[in-house]
Write a structure and sequence with these properties.
By secondary structure, this protein is α/β, with parallel strands linked by helices. The chain has a single domain, classed as Alpha/Beta hydrolase fold, catalytic domain (Rossmann fold). Helices cover 35% and strands 18% of the residues.
Length: 211
């Protein structure tokens, strides 16, 4: 398993990020997020699930498997990374969803200190009835979900009606899409503005959990 790293090697906290269902670990949105988090003082590590690595290495466009089947791969990445200090896990869209499904087991075992989800896929686009929130109701891991208000996988209006654990903090980025990007002429915010806000919020999460 290969990792991409951003940020200082001696940063006080590491964040491990997995990619979304359709784009690799070095997509534009993942690059931007990693840069922002490194700028906020984290050591950031990124990895790819096997199906995505196969696309890169073999040119075969394998479809993503069911998210829950990727749980063992995420756990293996944590073991291989062997972060020396506190570790926050998470990812973009599906990557964050996978991390959220294994978070409490790892948090209870003392292997991670928090969870960061960027554009959580609360439901498939145009299918708001197919919720992916059952495990989030009782989540115990301190978590930050960063979501654009017009994310087609879960808008602010939709998510406001969900029952979510008190351990989850939701950061809403005005007019952000699934990649957290706003339309500047409409919102007055740039993508860089939102990424800075995301990084600052992640740093606040790390400080809040005492790391």
């Amino acid at each position: 398993m290969n990792f991409l790293f951003d940020g200082a090697e001696d940063a006080p906290c590491t964040i491990l990020l997995a990619h979304g269902a359709g784009a690799p670990m070095d997509s534009a949105s993942m690059n931007a997020a990693a840069t922002a988090l490194a700028g906020a003082g984290f050591r950031v590590a990124r990895f790819e699930f096997a199906y995505m690595a196969a696309r890169r290495n073999e040119g075969a466009r394998k479809p993503p498997p069911r998210a829950e089947t990727l749980n063992p791969e995420y756990k293996a990445a944590i073991e291989q990374l062997a972060a020396k200090g506190p570790l926050i896990i998470g990812g973009k869209s599906m990557g964050g969803r996978v991390a959220s499904m294994i978070a409490d087991e790892l948090y209870g075992a003392g292997k991670i200190v928090g969870l960061l989800c960027l554009g959580y896929p609360f439901h498939p686009p145009a299918k708001p009835q197919q919720l992916r929130t059952k495990h989030l109701v009782g989540l115990k891991t301190p978590a930050l979900i960063v979501q654009g208000t017009r994310d087609e996988f879960g808008t602010r209006d939709e998510v406001s009606g969900y029952t979510l654990s008190d351990s989850i903090e939701l950061l809403w980025l005005e007019d952000g899409d699934h990649d957290l990007k706003p339309r500047k002429t409409i919102s007055g915010f740039s993508a860089a503005d939102h990424l800075k806000t995301m990084g600052d919020a992640a740093a606040a999460l790390a400080a809040r959990i005492g790391r």
